[in-house]
Write a structure and sequence with these properties.
The chain is an alpha/beta fold and 139 residues long. Helix content is 40%, strand content 15%. A five-stranded parallel β-sheet has the order 2-1-3-4-5. Helix 2 runs parallel beside helix 3. The chain is globular, with a radius of gyration of 14 Å.
Amino acid sequence: MEILLVEDEPNDIELTQRAFKRARIVNPVHVVHDGMAALDFLFAKGIYADRHDKKPPGVILLDLKLPKLDGLEVLRRIRADERTKNIPVVILTASKFESDHAECRRLGINSYIVKPVDFRNFSEVTPQLQFDWKLVRHD
């Protein structure tokens, strides 16, 4: 099961990948850096047109503050389409605004995680992802 990580900050991408490695999660992770690229990946458009016959990701890790198209709009489009509406979406964001959290809940997110500022805290969150979506661990 592939994981789609939608994140524009290189440090947060590295932090996520390191936390997965530390938790021994071995699922393939595909990274896109903006909201439009996320939609292209999910709907097999643009440079991802060759994905039309591939399975959708098993889980989407989505930042809210993205270039080109923000995470809330990406989430709205995911939930509005029959092909993607049931994919689990985990919001990974630095936003602590209750309005963002409330809108994400209204749109049917599976989890909302405020990004920790350090690796140790993020590593503590990673096993929760493995438990909730049965990501593959290499023990």
